[in-house]
Design a protein that fits this description.
flat, mainly alpha, 488 residues
């Protein structure tokens, strides 16, 4: 299945969805380096988002895709909730200040309107009429200029597109002349230039076969050298490229001019409508001051309502809804993980028991039990103490447990036919700097016991400069090389 996860920085609005596939999970099969250990046994790194899905896919457990979808939905809601709440908390001081200022301004506007209502009726201010008239004239002049510019650009791009078509035809003709060593100008001639009589179109291949021009019926002229034609063709292609770049830029310019023209047209229509409405305003006794005050009152009222929606009180319902969705999705993920754990309880138990057995054989000191949580987190118990996380073990113990875990996956595949492990392992210099010789020999003994137990339906390649491989492998299974020699 195609599984997804979310990526984003803490308290950042940038959240991206990432898809992970077998190309990513395949890295977890490489056990020769500590770099990839976190794919199966995470330490709160980004790889921790994959390990549960990785192990589930290797074991062939169902509901992996359902868990992935639920986790993506849960993480998205969680990130949205955290960002929303943090932004609201950070903006409360500014929002409350803005509400106070807008309320004070609204009170001043209301008082001024009351004074005008109680005074004498006046007419439209003549100065405002003149300003509006000038505004309409300015908008008309700007609109005419931009519309003319738009028309000029449209005409220019049409001409360039025609020129580009001609250049491409000429380039094609030069290419054909170079290929066939016969000069064909590529012009499409369907009528006689003298008498306008329609000419029959002859396919190019017929001209090539007959060696005769379909227009003048003369013999096609052979081209002695194609070097000049190639130079001309490259010049045409370069010219065509430059013209295409110019056309692309011209299209952007046209889009910008079109946007500006439409905006000016909208502004012009609004100004004309307002100018036409002056007579009605004069009859109603509106002054420019009252008109301005009414506009301010509506704006301030809307601003106050909008600011209230940005307060914690105004967004409480939204925050509660987001938090409830997160809790529901969190519970869904937990239930799905519990279902998987219960459904495959015996399988997972066999896996960890096999891992513990091999870990003991490899010489992990005091190992008594290995456990996988519902989140597929590996826990280890030593000397009857409490369980500890895999990444809290020392380096040599992690190496032994890691190899034991992968061999357990192979054992399940061989014995039960479960999972997708390829039953193939390459172990490169195991424990070269992490374990001593005694522990290394214990690991080899465990590998030998594993081989005796599970037959020959698997393959493990081990590279080491230490002695001891001859005690595990048959003579025909060992290859030795001197320093500097290659195996492959």
């Amino acid at each position: 299945p195609s599984l997804e996860w979310l990526q984003g920085q803490k308290l950042s609005v940038e959240i991206t969805t990432r898809s992970v596939s077998w190309s990513t999970y395949a890295q977890a099969l490489f056990i020769g380096a500590d770099d990839f250990s976190d794919y199966l046994f995470p330490d709160n790194s980004v790889n921790g988002r994959h390990h549960q899905k990785t192990i589930s896919m290797y074991l062939g457990l169902d509901l992996v895709e359902a868990i992935s979808v639920a986790q993506v939905a849960r993480d998205r809601v969680s990130m949205d909730f955290q960002i929303e709440r943090k932004q609201l908390q950070n903006n409360q001081t500014q929002v409350q200040t803005a509400i106070k200022q807008a309320t004070e301004s609204l009170e001043q506007v209301e008082r001024r309107l009351q004074l005008i209502d109680s005074g004498e009726s006046v007419t439209i201010d003549p100065a405002y009429v003149g300003q509006l008239n000038q505004h309409v004239a300015d908008l008309t002049r700007r609109f005419t200029t931009v519309a003319s510019q738009h028309q000029s650009l449209a005409t220019q791009i049409t001409q360039w597109q025609s020129d580009l078509a001609s250049i491409e035809r000429e380039s094609l003709a030069l290419k054909e002349a170079a290929e066939f060593r016969v000069f064909i100008n590529g012009l499409t001639i369907d009528r006689c230039p003298r008498c306008e009589q329609e000419l029959q179109t002859v396919p190019m291949h017929e001209e090539m076969e007959s060696h005769t021009c379909s227009v003048c019926h003369g013999e096609l002229r052979r081209v002695p050298s194609v070097e000049t034609l190639e130079i001309l063709r490259k010049d045409k292609e370069s010219e065509a490229k430059k013209l295409k770049d110019s056309i692309r830029q011209m299209k952007k310019d046209i889009a910008q001019v079109t946007k500006e023209r439409d905006q000016l047209n909208q502004q012009l229509e609004q100004a004309r409508a307002e100018f036409s409405d002056l007579a009605r305003q004069a009859q109603a006794g509106f002054t420019e001051e009252m008109k301005d005050l009414l506009g301010k009152r509506g704006y301030l009222q809307g601003q106050i309502e909008q600011l209230k929606t940005q307060t914690l009180e105004g967004r409480s319902d939204r925050l509660q809804e987001m938090e409830a969705r997160y809790l529901v999705l969190k519970q869904v993920v937990s239930l799905l993980e519990e279902i998987v754990s219960n459904r495959y309880k015996d399988l997972l138990k066999t896996l960890v028991q096999e891992t513990a057995t091999l870990g003991v054989a490899f010489g992990v000191p005091g190992l008594t039990q290995v456990m996988l949580t519902e989140q597929m987190e590996l826990l280890v118990k030593q000397h009857a103490a409490q369980f500890v996380r895999y990444n809290n073990l020392d380096v040599s113990e992690r190496l032994k447990i890691k190899i034991a875990f992968f061999l357990s996956l192979i054992a399940l595949r061989l014995r039960e036919g479960i999972g997708r492990h390829p039953a193939f392992c390459i172990i490169d210099a195991p424990g070269s700097g992490e374990i001593d010789q005694a522990s290394f020999k214990a690991m080899l003994a465990g590998l030998k016991e594993f081989g005796n137990k599970h037959g020959e339906n698997f393959q493990i390649l081990i590279a080491s400069t230490r002695s001891g491989l001859e005690d595990v492998c048959k003579p025909d299974q060992i290859e030795e090389r001197r320093a500097g020699e290659k195996f492959f």
